[in-house]
Amino acid sequence: MTTKRIIACLDVKGANVVKGVNFLNLQFKGDPVSLASLYEEEGADEIVFLDITATIEARRALYSVIKDTASVLSIPLTVGGGIRTLDDVSMALSSGADKVSINTAAVENSQIVKKSAEEFGSQAVVVAIDAKKINGNWIVFTKSGTYNTGLDAIKWAKKVEDLGAGEILLTSIDRDGTRLGYDLELIKKIVDSVNIPVIASGGAGKMEHFYDVFFLAKADAALAAGIFHDGIIKIKDLKSYLSQKGIEVRI
């Protein structure tokens, strides 16, 4: 079994970390630099920094905040939000990010994925897929979950792999912030459809949910936000639990 990763997510709005439910009703949770530092200390394998209003506000990501966050980390940092051009990708990487997460721009112009992979390497390109179940199918949403693209999430996952994405960050909008558990059916379908790592996101509420997403859905990594921000689960304790259950993690 490959080593599974635990990823802490920072949803950033106006330089503050926030968290909502189903992408709505955002509440203040702290500042990204302090939280990133704390999660690395607790044993997080990676940090994902998402500037959640950059795309909707048609602006670039908060590069000064990204720089400050990257400066306190030695673990990989993925940055997303407002990444629309090769210049944006370059700016994020030169601000200290190890990878960029592209969502809306990838749907609107899939060549951004291909060109980014060619320019910076597939290992630096993550495509974020926010999916919602509609009439029995998972559909891709963009612009922070506000726009229904009509794209089938499984077909889109295969396409972004073909374009050169090195990883998929898969979020279930239906489960986001609910703490009811990851959408195992969706995750397993995507995992089975591609040969690149899949990060599961949306719905973590207890340690068993992480075990299920690794053991049953075969995700390569599990991302969570609210349960870490609120201190419900400590990453060290989670890794100890997973290790005892036979899931290989970095302790």
TrEMBL record:
Active site: 11, 130
Coiled-coil portions: none
Pathway the protein contributes to: Amino-acid biosynthesis; L-histidine biosynthesis; L-histidine from 5-phospho-alpha-D-ribose 1-diphosphate: step 5/9
Enzyme class: lyase
Compartment annotation: Cytoplasm
One GO molecular-function entry: lyase activity
Key words, A-Z: Amino-acid biosynthesis, Cytoplasm, Histidine biosynthesis, Lyase
GO cellular component: cytoplasm
EC number: 4.3.2.10
InterPro entries per record: Aldolase_TIM, His_biosynth, HisF, IGPS_HisA/HisF, RibuloseP-bd_barrel
Catalytic activity: 5-[(5-phospho-1-deoxy-D-ribulos-1-ylimino)methylamino]-1-(5-phospho-beta-D-ribosyl)imidazole-4-carboxamide + L-glutamine = D-erythro-1-(imidazol-4-yl)glycerol 3-phosphate + 5-amino-1-(5-phospho-beta-D-ribosyl)imidazole-4-carboxamide + L-glutamate + H(+)
CDD domains: HisF
Superkingdom of origin: Archaea
GO annotation terms (biological process): L-histidine biosynthetic process
UniProt family annotation: Belongs to the HisA/HisF family.
NCBIfam families attached to this UniProt entry: hisF
Function, as annotated: IGPS catalyzes the conversion of PRFAR and glutamine to IGP, AICAR and glutamate. The HisF subunit catalyzes the cyclization activity that produces IGP and AICAR from PRFAR using the ammonia provided by the HisH subunit.
Complex formation: Heterodimer of HisH and HisF.
Designated name of the protein: Imidazole glycerol phosphate synthase subunit HisF
Organism expressing this protein natively: Saccharolobus islandicus (strain M.14.25 / Kamchatka #1) (Sulfolobus islandicus)
